[in-house]
Specification:
The chain is mainly α and 238 residues long. It has one domain: Growth Hormone, Chain: A (Up-down Bundle), CATH 1.20.1250. It has 9 helices and no strands. Helix 3 packs antiparallel against helix 4, helix 5 runs antiparallel to helix 6 and helix 5 packs antiparallel against helix 9.
């Protein structure tokens, strides 16, 4: 009975909200793929898991690992710059805003440009990347995730990058047996992060030329779909 009620609640969610949540989930595939690529091939740090990078930076200092410290510091700075840049395009959440503001699409287009530059750099540099090239790619990846974070924050209380709070909320809801209305999106982004990481790791380790596809395909799909959603411009739920 409880399962039937959960499915009913998910189905009765307004179409605009369902479409928005689906795009947020798809966008998280890009996050997982890029995190995997950065960790495996660009310096053992993440492009979006900034709290993890803070811990890695502390470890690097404790172990006197200059390379890891530099990578961690660069990703932190680039992510912060990306958030500032993204927020300048996306703005902040407003009362009564549409479910998918047009400025979110514009911000994701800015992120796509950064990811295209990242992908071009990845392909041009080949398999023998020097330290400087790896750092440039790290900066681009972290900046793109910062821009994405700002874009998704404009949509409301949700994220495609920092998901610890999302996972905590799900566990807490299970403990109280009262799942929130947005449980489907929360589960979706957690699963998408892991699936994206699988694709990203396979591409990075088995077929590096496919890394751009793992990173760009979800982003392009979301961007194109968001044009239609922004065009309908349904109001966000209260």
């Amino acid at each position: 009975m409880q399962r039937r009620e959960l499915l009913k609640r998910a189905w009765l969610t307004p179409r605009g909200t369902r479409d928005r949540d689906a795009l947020v989930v798809i966008l998280t595939l890009c996050t997982g793929a890029l995190d995997a690529v950065c960790f495996l091939r660009l310096g053992k740090v993440f492009s979006s898991v900034i709290t993890g990078n803070l811990a890695l930076l502390g470890i690097a200092v404790g172990e006197r690992n200059g390379g890891l410290a530099a990578n961690g510091g660069l990703t932190l700075a680039a992510y912060a710059a990306g958030v500032v840049l993204g927020t300048s395009f996306a703005g902040t959440t407003e009362r009564g805003q549409p479910v998918w503001p047009r400025r979110v699409t514009v911000t994701l287009a800015v992120e796509l440009v950064i990811l295209v530059v990242f992908s071009a750099g990845w392909l041009i540099s080949g398999s023998h990347r020097g330290a400087a090239t790896r750092m440039v790619l790290l900066v681009l990846a972290a900046a793109a995730m910062g821009v994405q974070t700002a874009a998704v924050r404009r949509l409301g209380q949700m994220s495609t990058t920092y998901l610890t709070s999302t996972l905590t909320g799900l566990f807490a809801a299970l403990a109280t047996r009262r799942l929130p209305d947005d449980w489907a999106r929360s589960v979706g982004v957690i699963v998408a992060l892991a699936v994206g990481a699988v694709f990203g790791s396979l591409a990075a380790t088995q077929s590096p030329s496919w890394v751009p596809a793992a990173v760009l395909v979800p982003q392009v799909c979301v961007l194109l779909s968001s044009l239609a959603l922004a065009g309908r411009n349904p109001p966000a739920p209260a």
